[in-house]
Amino acid sequence: QVQVVESGGGLVQAGGSLRLSCAASGRSKHAMGWFRQAPGKEREFVAGISFSWIIPATDYADSVKGRFTISRDNGKNAVYLEMSSLKPEDTAVYYCAARVSEGLATTENLYEYWGQGTQVTVSS
Q1: How far apart are alpha carbons 105 and 116 in whole angstroms?
Q2: pLDDT of residue 28
Q3: N or C: which end of the chain has fewer CB within 10 A?
Q4: What is the pLDDT of residues 14-46, one digit of tens each?
């Protein structure tokens, strides 16, 4: 069974930047993604990345396009989320998830393994 652990959250002022990291155990080839859940709201898709030996496919929620960048290190089974121009509405618990499949997905029920989340707070 795959274990997923994310880190890198914290408190940042609006307009600032943060870099989140996520590591998945084992050496399987997984597509991975980031989701977030703000207080009182449902969990939503943020960014996803496929597994590829060459160039992985990526996708982003409209609300973060141009501000967030997802990337991965296949050798470490790790994925990263670089966040810039942060807004107060980005405040949420951010979750890293992994799929058994290599293919990119934007729906949370297509991911089998989940981390416990890391808090990102953006002050106004």
Answers
A1: 20
A2: 73
A3: N
A4: 999 999 999 988 767 899 999 999 999 999 999
The pLDDT-based confidence of 86 (bands split at 50, 70, 90) is very high
Strands 44-49 and 10-13: unpaired
How many other C-beta atoms are found inside a 10 Å radius of the C-beta of residue 63? Answer: 14
Gyration radius of the chain's alpha carbons:
13
How distant, in Å, are the alpha carbons of 12, 59, 77, 80 from that of 33? 22, 9, 12, 9
Q: What's the rounded Cα separation, in Å, for the pair 19 and 32?
A: 16
Q: How many CB atoms lie within 10 A of CB 2?
A: 16
Q: Are 21 and 80 in contact (CB under 8 A)?
A: yes
Secondary structure (3-state) at 90: helix
